Amino acid sequence: MKRKIIQSEKRDTSAGRLQQSGQKPKDLNVHARSQWQWTNMFLLSLCIFSASIPFLLHIFSASIDLSRPSDIGLNHTINMYLTPEQGVRVGVWHTVPEHRWKEAQGKDLDWYEKALGDGSPIFIYLHGNGGNRSAPHRIGIANVLSAVGYHVLVMDYRGFGDSTGEPTEAGLTTDAVYLYHWVKARSGNSLVCVWGHSLGSGVTTNTAVKLLEQGKQFDGIILEGAFLTGRVARDQRMEHPFTWFYWKFPYIQFYLFNPLKNNILVFPTDENLQKLRTPLMILHSEDDHLIPIAIAQEIYRTAKKAQNSDKRVKLVTFDGSLGYLHNGLYKDSGLPNIIREFVESLMT
Question: Which of 198, 284, 285, 332 does the annotation list as catalytic?
């Protein structure tokens, strides 16, 4: 028959174990407290390390010589500098289609410029906030596009990377418009598309409207991780995307009381989309931790209504279980086919 131990008996048993071990009850409390402190110190250290990863990646990318893309394995890419405005120089990487990588070895800028007219589609990639054109996810997208058979031009806007000048919304748009015209002057009849990621989605739609005013337009637009009018959600403002620039040059804060006050951002993506009739594809991960999937759905509804077409506006979402978050779509094995189908639809 099993013996049932009542509560008082349990206390006596515990006391007996303490006496046998020579420990006092308060010694156990000290030990437990010590374990609790070490556990919390470990968790705190883990949090600090995790939070520092983006900073460490930024430091790593900032240490790369952007004038030498071959140093990080981009052996069919050349670096160049363009001058959108007096006193502003922007750095650009041009990656040719992967099937031309052997031919590209040792070639100069003149060869790369002429290669833009080989008939292969061309993508201008407008990246997100902070860092530079060497960020892993930006190289990832460039490699995917190159593997599919396209030219890719990745620009660091003014104030980003090794590009000179101060970043402003108008300035970033000017840089992108200039790069478009530079490409068109060399591309012949090739398709010229644009891919805007995050902050770059706002630059993309601004640029598309500017070109429309000039009687020009992109052949196709891809928006990845896009936002609306500087919001990540209704009535929720984004952190000012150029804050990093003033951390990079802290002396500016000393001489200028509030350097961001003249850097008011609008990026009216929703208003821009109502003016555009360019074929559009929206890419978004369901687990995007910076810009909710609801924003992509709202962008899709806005563009679809403006163009009154299911065929010219597409929304492609990626399951949250894949863990792509805000920057990881380039990892998806199905992305090349998604891009290829979109580009082929532009040719019909």
Answer: 198
Q: Which of 156, 175, 288, 332 is catalytic?
A: 288
Q: For the ranges 50-64, 88-102, 136-150, which has the lowest average pLDDT?
A: 50-64
Measure the CA–CA gap between 95 and 100, rounded to whole angstroms: 10
The confidence score (pLDDT) of residue 243 equals 63
Phi, psi (rounded to 5 degrees) for 27? -65, -35
User: What is the pLDDT averaged over residues 8-28?
Assistant: 43
Tell me the three-class secondary structure of the chain, residue by residue.
CCCCCCHHHHHHHHHHHHHHHCCCHHHHHHHHHHHHHHHHHHHHHHHHHHHHHHHHHHHHHHCCCCCCHHHHCCCCEEEEEEEEECCEEEEEEEECCHHHHHHHCCCCHHHHHHHCCCCCCEEEEECCCCCCCCCHHHHHHHHHHHHHCCEEEEECCCCCCCCCCCCCHHHHHHHHHHHHHHHHCCCCCCCEEEEEECHHHHHHHHHHHHHHHCCCCCCEEEEECCCECCEEECCEECCCCCHHHHHHCCHHHHHCCCCCCCCCCCCCHHHHHCCCCCCEEEEEECCCCCCCHHHHHHHHHHHHHHHCCCCCEEEEEECHHHCCCCCCHHHCCCHHHHHHHHHHHHCC
Question: How crowded is residue 136: how many other Cβ atoms within 10 Å of its Cβ?
Answer: 14
Higher pLDDT, 262 or 95: 95
Closest C-alpha among 145, 134, 160, 142 to residue 67? 134
Contacts of 211 (CB under 8 A, 6+ apart): 177, 180, 217, 218
Q: Is 326 a catalytic residue?
A: yes
- Residue tagged active-site, from 120, 285, 326, 332: 326
CB 336 within 8 A of CB 144: yes
271-280 average pLDDT score: 96
Mean pLDDT of 252-272: 65
- Does the pTM surpass 0.85? The reply is no
Backbone angles phi, psi at 130, to 5 degrees: 75, 165
